[in-house]
User: Fold these one by one.
Assistant:
Number 1:
Amino acid sequence: MPKPLRQSDLDAYLDEALPADEMARIEGILREDPTQVEQLAAINARRDAGIHTLGEIWRRNRLSCPTREQLGSYLMGVLPDDEAEHIRFHLEITACRFCQANTTDLQNAEEETPCEVQTRRRKYFQSSAGYLKKS
Ligand SMILES: [Zn+2]
């Protein structure tokens, strides 16, 4: 028995605001459980009637989302305290999936870059060394 989906899951699903594996998980649950589809349909109907949840409005408009640059500065720890605190709250307490994904992406990029640069430097060095030997 899959655990029931939360309203916020279904909202985010409709907004396609979830990571791919989470989208797939919810899709799987919806396929197996007609009552959850009813719930999804109800949310959709309410949306058509113009009623939106706060979370939905928030995600739609990304009301308080920091920019990618701000997230980068946050990761580097160069933001003023109050700004850093706002972003920490947004990521950890509000748990904004959009910004969490963005942050993970930035962290990965940060981890990869120095290594890639080194590899490139080494390759460059080796090829120029080889070139020098031949000439
Ligand atoms: Zn956000």
Number 2:
Amino acid sequence: MIIVVERIKTGIPGMDELLYGGIPKRNIVLLSGGPGTGKTIFSQQYVYYGLLHGEPAVYVALEEHPVQVRRNMAEFGWDVRKFEEEGLFAIVDAFTGGIGEAAKRERYVVTSVDDFGEFIDVVKQALRDTRAVRAVVDSVSTLYITKPAVARGVLMNLKRVLAGLGATAILVSQVSVTERGFGGPGVEHAVDGIIRLDLDEVNGELKRSLIVWKMRGTKHDMRRHPFEITDKGIRVFPDKVVKITRFGYREE
Ligand SMILES: Nc1ncnc2c1ncn2[C@@H]1O[C@H](COP(=O)(O)OP(=O)(O)OP(=O)(O)O)[C@@H](O)[C@H]1O
Ligand SMILES: [Mg+2]
């Protein structure tokens, strides 16, 4: 018997080639990388592609004001307001704590991010209301940065809710510039996939590359590929490979 893996396309040019068509449905993928590596742009592009193709989405903002999320996305030409008005897209405001005039206009507000129960309830409500097929949490690190002991529990809980309600999710994980890991052992093993974004300084210039470290339920490319960020978002070069050896950094 052939079981066809249902996939969710990232819609990021070049990326789905590395995933043999896309992320297996209901997988929870950790998108890990240092500061400025493109995690937020990648996630927003993933969400917007879905909206354009009739797949509702939820974006959980823990790092930036929802107003700023809308503005950043619009800079790339990804205008989400129409989808919000139609109930197909929701931003969960887990940033403002409900403080400020702009926050009063938000529909999904987490008043205390330290209250994980409340956080999960608001996320659940947004997923249900929109019937989200895609979800992003930017970033999950914020949920447990001060309490690493609970990281795995928080993540398993989140994973149950997201996959349980039918979403294929990207969880942004922040790592420091020098860290080789992806966000800690509890987290790395709990997720279904890991995509790692990197920035390397080569001869005084920053180079971007990414690698799919794991993806449950599918074959995936095992090589490191260069990518670029432009006014249109991210583009991955599946035909180019980056080699980091003891002799240096080489793009072929
Ligand atoms: N229009 C653009 N053209 C080219 N590069 C851009 C453009 N807009 C942003 N960038 C690049 O993208 C980077 C920001 O990407 P992003 O916000 O996705 O990073 P991040 O991984 O989420 O970082 P952090 O962990 O700090 O939130 C900027 O530092 C810049 O290098
Ligand atoms: Mg970011």
